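Question (not urgent): is this output format expected?
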Amino acid sequence: MSTPPVNQFPPIGPKKDKFTPELRILVASLLSVAVIILWTKYFGPKPPAHVPQQNQPVVSAPAISGPSAATSEPAEPTPSAAPSTVSAAAPPAAPLTEDTQERTIVVENDLYRVEFSNRGAVVKSWQLKKYTDDSKPQKILDLVHPKAAADTGGWPFSMVIDDPQLEKAANSGLYKLSGDAASLAAPADLAFTWSDGHLEVSKKFHFDHSYVLTVETSVTHNGTRLLGGLAWRGGFGDLTVTNPIPVETVSTFYSENGKLSTFAHKKLDAPEKWGNIWMGGKTFAGIADRYFTVAFLPPNDSPGTLLETRYWKVFHSIQVDGKDQSEPVPEVAVVTRSQPMALRVYVGPKDYDDLKAIHPPLHSLVQFGWLEIIADPLFHGLKWLHTYVPNWGWAIVVLTLIVNMVLFPLRISSYKTTIKMQRVGPEIKQIQEKYKKYKMNDPRKAEMNKEVMAIYSREGINPIGGCLPMVLQFPIWFGLNRALSYAIELRHANWLWVRDLASKDPYYVLPVMVGVSMYLVSKMTPMTITDPQQAKMMKLMPVSMAVMFVVFPFSSGLALYILTSSLVGILQQWYLNRTHPLPAPVKPVHAKK
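Got this back:
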């Protein structure tokens, strides 16, 4: 189909009016707008002057408390009278207060070095001088994760405000410092103030010679006080640990009615889940990894003040084997209803005795798990020995000697039981041979057990007594491993070639020695097992123990305990074999046909 030719000349006819309907509408609209503006400027009523009102109630949603608030799943947020964003036409309610450039100021004492930035009045570094990380070469431990904080836009001691725009302004403004000094030595006071004319924020810090500091914050908007929480954002803890990875050891926590609740990153939701909800009724709250913690506490002058908390997770990108991967970042915030808000904050190691001395006590943060009933006394016994034996490794050796001496009477009883069982071994083996053709669920197998138990009863043998010392050692092993792995005192504690008794032996010397020593003990101990399969498994047990210490992250302190226990067992078994020689086995009685 051909395209019709385009007419290049205008049509002939009467001349059109150049004021088209569209143009007339445009002109009329412009004239109307001009009339409205002129009338408003010269004849309209004047707006009343805004007078700031003092001592207004805090604008926030009510605190959530009760059973539903104590779970990791907060209730759905409800609307609240959140403050509106600042309008450009609203007159300022406070004088402008801000710095002209970004500055840093350092506060330090013998325990820590803290670096603040006046942009947001937040912490950029918190170094604990008495502790090092696991990097090579080792550096002073910094609890702040700068990359995660920069990626997520949140730093420690930033503010949490229900209005996102006000929160962003409060955490990005250039605060004015209380002085001109670039560094302060504790005891010291540090104050930050900032205002854009509508939102006004102040933060005051007091540092002394301990790990506890006091913080006082105040947030107002157009003269109305707002509820502003104090947060630890951007990650926490030792970034250089490898097994497990750092985020797997970090959890948020709170204490309510004497019960500690912890929340790993898998139990945390996004910050949007909270809305404007704060969970009340908390004695303390914070964030922690395996060895260190930040705990928000009520002020000294009102220790009964209950805290309100939120906890959530955000994500940032990290490189794993050259590929981008999202990593969760747990965060926590705390607020009180008092104005200005006053808090104490503990930032430091999870030292059991130091945490117990704080009010309210924080020693429940040192968690030994379900074996705490064993781990706790072992840890305190080891700590008591360390006052006399200055090296933690040798203190473990002494503790092992004490435990084995206490269990030695049981070992003697077990050895006597073993002798009796070995003496009647041929007789029991004959009974087992008679019934071996029957399956395990065959009723005639019960007859075999009756005949075996009759022999045990005749000889006065308790079959459990032979393995009682080993059964008692297992909970001690697990409890001690828990104590060694979670006590800050054992972190980076060295012994001979071992540089950290809380982690694996880097040269695997201890696991090999454990396997060899356990094999020697088994060779010296009389065998009571008549089943060849079970006997083979018992011979493989020392090898499997050595492999477990290589593969799994058991502490080298536990390997040292087992090695010492095995060496003591060799001496004890040599003594028993020498003083209690094995009797001749009893010949089996053949049944009459």
